[in-house]
Amino acid sequence: MSQAGHTGRDHGGGLDAAVAAFGGVRGDWLDLSTGINPVPYPVGEIDPEAWTALPDRGATDRLLTAARAFWSVPEGAAIVAAPGTSSLIVQMPWLSDARRVHIPRPTYNEHAAAFRLAGYMHEDESDAPVAVYVHPNNPDGRLWDTATVTDPARDLIVVDESFCDVMPEASHVWHAGEGQAVVLKSFGKFWGLAGLRLGFAIGTPHRLARPGCGAADVVDLAEQLGPWAVAGPALEIGARALEDVAWAEATRTRLARDAARLDRLVGWDLVGGTDLFRTYAVPDAAAMQEKLAQGRVWSRVFPYSKTWIRLGLPAPDQWDQLEAAL
What we know:
About 30% of the residues lie in helices and about 20% in strands.
């Protein structure tokens, strides 16, 4: 069955559709169709003013300072916070006027959709002036090397690192301080707070701007997003979480342990993935998805593969349900 979201494009999630097709209520289900950390960062108490006042400059500065430190953003790079990485993805086509883009497939489909909507031709030729690399790739976990993401022949290189926080040593953030790379970071995946809607773009000030019209030479990405782009609670929670390095280190250890446990439990052939999701090959992915659904476990299958199935990680109290469904 389709897992398309409200955009009509293929995504994980869509638990309401699974409930409608297989029964039960949402509370019965274990949703493993996304790669979101099942043990989210503890939100804690939020300053009431974060809900009632327009976000002030100090809250934004704290968030960006914490982000710079956490990801070791180089001095030559600028960083822009946004209400979710998706809101940045739709802006990426406008950072170049080249009109041709290379997006190696299979990968996260929102990038191709954004460039198509902006009038680009989605081509597979390696010489397109704009390129997009998801690093590590979703759904197969492929990593892209330095030469690829720093190709001087490109006008713009988008590096989507939404799942890279489980392996910070692989990050290409350092290259965002020079050249044509723009690195995207997602808060929702690693910190498990996708509903908070928080994402970041990192690149040189020149690269985080779109060609202007008329008298304007360039239009800054932050200006495109408008004032108060990130909600007050997201500014406060995001800053607090990014400052909590000990939580991040402990979380990486747990996720690695649980990813290995999942591999052992299912016993399927591993295609690839990250410590937040695992993609496997089975004889019939649609049949396996339906089998798991009978046990109220929702998984991810792909329209381009009859054999690939992807599972996120269960929370500590959810492993028995997955094992029973298997």
